[in-house]
Amino acid sequence: MANTIIETSFDIIFNAGEARSECELALNALEDFDFVTADEHIKKANDSIVKAHAMHTDILQSYIGEMEGQPFYMIFSHAQDTLMTINSEILIAKHLIKISKAVYEKIK
Known about the structure:
This protein is mostly helical. The chain has helices at 2-31, 35-63, 74-107. Helix 1 packs parallel to helix 3 (74-107). It is elongated.
C-alpha cells in the first residue's frame, strides 16, 4: 500500500503540474486575445487535472475502512495541496477566458 500511495502521489503532482503549465499557456494566449489557443490549452489543463483528481479519489477510496492505523505520507498531503491549488487556478482561468471573450465581443 505504501508504494502505491507514494507512486500515485507523484503521479498526481505530475499531472497537476502539467495542468498548471497548460493553464499558464492558456492565460498567455488570452493576453493576446487568442481565444482559440486559450481554449485548447485550458482543455488540456482540464484533462490533466481530471486525471490527477481521479488518482486522488482512487487513493482515498482505497483507504475507506482502512484508515485506522495507516501511516501518514507527507507526499500525499503535498499532492492533495497541489491538486486543489491548480484546480482553483484552472477554475479562475476558465472564468477569465469567458469574461474576456464577452468583453472582446462588446468592444469589437
